Amino acid sequence: MKTDFLVLGSGLAGLRFALKVSDHGSVTVVTKGKIQEATTARAQGGIAAVLDPKDSFEGHIQDTLNAGEGLCHEEVVRQVIRDAPAQIKDLMQLGVQFSKDAAGHLALAKEGGHGMARVAHAQDATGAEIERALVQSCRQHPNIKIFEDHMAVDLITNRHLESKQRSPKPRCYGAYVLDIKTQEIKTFQAKITLLATGGAGKVYLYTSNPDSASGDGMALAYRAGCTLTNMEFVQFHPTCLYHPEAKNFLISEALRGEGGILKLLTGEPFIKRYDPRGDLATRDIVARAIDSELKKSGNPYVWLDISHKPSHFIKERFPNIYQTCLKYGIDITTSPIPVVPAAHYFCGGVATNQQGRTTLENLSACGEVAHTGLHGANRLASNSLLEAAAYACYAAQDAIQKLKESHESPNIPDWDPKGATDSNEEVVLSQNWEEIRTFMWNYVGIVRSNKRLERAQNRIKLLLDEIHEYYWNFKINKNLLELRNLSLVAHLIIQSALWRKESRGLHYNIDTPHSDPAYQKDTLAIGRP
Ligand SMILES: Cc1cc2nc3c(=O)[nH]c(=O)nc-3n(C[C@H](O)[C@H](O)[C@H](O)COP(=O)(O)OP(=O)(O)OC[C@H]3O[C@@H](n4cnc5c(N)ncnc54)[C@H](O)[C@@H]3O)c2cc1C
Fold first, then answer.
1. Is 283 marked active-site?
2. Which residues face 108 on adjacent strands?
3. Are 365 and 217 in contact, with CB atoms under 8 Å apart?
4. Whose C-alpha in 59, 282, 350, 397 is 20 to 30 A from the C-alpha of 244?
């Protein structure tokens, strides 16, 4: 399969890039599940942008820098935030229907860490509305081919070529891709490849992310020799629904923005004891406050209460949350919601420049898989959809230019299974999945310590060896590939967390509880091809 642009992933970042480049060459979108299955489709709160005349770019910039605690790249913050209103306009032109107020203006919500109401939303299902519009446009475009149930296994680089065909600089030539239905490995050769595979929440036992978020893109890039940055900064969302049958259901920050209050099971509000901003403090502070109270009390959850607001308002503003909770027997108009923190968002990822280029020639990355410098040590709410939308455009503009300079394609060898046989030990996989996710939650979670990180490091070393051996002996499948990627991502998080001997933003270590100016720099993990 030969294509000009190969897009790995079909969330906001991937599909927006695909549409932007589609008039300039052939586009192939490869995605692990069905096209609409992406974290994007789960986003509830919305996209942050300065849209109210009383608001200012400087306000949004300062809120972003404050959340990022000294690690944001200020030039990136300024560029993305100034561009945000145009991004919203562009999405509306594509057909995204944002909620409007009675006067017909965009309705804007206030979220934690924001000084103003500046979050454009489509009720409480913003991501689903964005994904709907993007999927519809991509399906209609004659230059875009979509391969569902196809999973990228590895990027094709110089190491896959005969020596005389290798380019002098390390370069990406596309990807080997598993057809999940037929188990066949196909070669997708591309002039430009975009990684838009999203985050890695599944590395933790409790997460708001869908099952697809197994850090594939981060692992692919590392194995191809790319640099990854700030992998220790994992955002834990303070409020996921606590219910034995609910899997990964988030209760949006907007609920607190509209007056929701976190309470102990005694009914006492408690966040003000941790931060004067109370329930609208940034996510790291709220998540740590909940974690600390849960550890103190031994209770499995705290309450999030919005039942003091009029019932019709709750149903209209949060129809998705209202209906989902009702399904589990919780009427949020009359009762508080049981909530716990869960792994939610990766601030770190594949290092890119301001055009979305990675350190590997002809490979770009955008969306949650990438580290652009926008979020620093902590992401401000609703800045990630913005980052995905904006960087998909910057990367597309750059890719269109690059295509014009592209070289003759070399001969790419087919995938070599090297005598792998069918596995009769799938139990090894399920055991390792469970083990990694559990020790990552317990030892590398919201509150870390040197001892816990070292324990995690010892365990991941053993597991990496075991998984590596399994990978080379047996035929690959989706489960094995995800585990292989996830274990590498876990290793990178642990290494990065051990390197940072301080606490800053989302990285909190009880042995080094204060920030240290010596560590006011990005953590680098340089890939090994
Ligand atoms: C519950 C929830 C609510 C959120 N709410 C908000 C919000 O209100 N505002 C905000 O700004 N952010 C929010 N976020 C974060 C935001 O949704 C994500 O950061 C963003 O959608 C990521 O978009 P993306 O395109 O980078 O990745 P995704 O949308 O995750 O898409 C990744 C795609 O890559 C595919 N993929 C993965 N691996 C492979 C592979 N190996 N081969 C092929 N395909 C692959 C996946 O199947 C998927 O299609 C929320 C996140 C969650 C979990």
1. yes
2. 120
3. yes
4. 282
Strand partners, 250: 240
The verdict on 266 and 378 lying in the same domain is: no
- Biggest CA-to-CA distance, the chain: 71
Let me know the angle formed at the C-alpha of 161 by 159 and 167, rounded to the nearest 5 degrees.
Answer: 85
Q: How far apart are CA 366 and CA 353, in angstroms?
A: 10
Residue 355 lies in a domain: yes
Kindly report the CATH number assigned to the domain that includes residue 330: 3.90.700.10
> Strand 108-109 to strand 119-120: parallel, antiparallel, or no bridges (unpaired)?
antiparallel
Q: Pick the residue whose CA is nearest to atom 31 on ligand 1.
A: 11
Q: How many CB atoms lie within 10 A of CB 522?
A: 18
**Co-location of 398 and 445 in the same domain:** no
The secondary element (H helix, E strand) that includes residue 355 is: none
Classified as helix, coil or strand, 200 is coil
Torsion, CA 464, CA 469, CA 470, CA 476, rounded to 10? 100
Tell me, in angstroms, the distance from the centre of ligand 1 to residue 360's CA.
Answer: 23
* pLDDT of 428: 84
DSSP state, residue 258: T
What is the per-residue pLDDT across 107-119, written as a single tens digit (0 to 9) for each? 999 888 899 999 9
Torsions phi, psi for 449 (to 5 deg):
-145, 160
With respect to residue 142, please indicate whether it lies within any of the assigned structural domains: yes
Collapsing DSSP states into helix, strand and coil, what is residue 442?
helix
CA distance 150 to 497: 33
Whole-number Å distance between alpha carbons of 269 and 251: 18
Q: Residue 261's pLDDT is what?
A: 97
360, 322 in Cβ contact below 8 A? no
Distance 421 CA to ligand 1 centre (A): 34
Question: Residue type for 170, please?
Answer: P
Query: What are phi and psi for residue 475, nearest 5 degrees?
Result: -65, 145
**Is residue 525 situated within a structural domain?**
no
My answer on whether 139 and 223 are in the same domain is: yes
How far apart (Å, rounded) are the C-alpha atoms in residues 203 and 433?
9
Pocket of ligand 1 (CB under 6 A): 8-14, 30-33, 37-40, 42-47, 126-127, 151-152, 196-198, 208-209, 212, 216, 250, 344-345, 367-369, 382-385, 388
- Alpha-carbon distance of 469 to 188, in angstroms, equals 26
Distance of CA 426 to the CA centre of its chain: 28
Catalytic residue selected from 16, 42, 171, 283: 283
How far apart are alpha carbons 22 and 170 in whole angstroms?
26
What is the 368 CA–ligand 1 centroid distance (Å)?
Answer: 7
Which residues of the chain fall below pLDDT 70? none
Strands (DSSP E) contained in 196-301 are 227-229, 234-241, 261-263
Reported residue count of the chain is 529
CA-CA distance, 396 to 389, in Å (whole number)? 11
Same domain, 227 and 240: no
Q: At what angle do helices 216-223 and 478-499 cross, to 10 degrees?
A: 80
Helix (H) / strand (E) element for 309: namely none
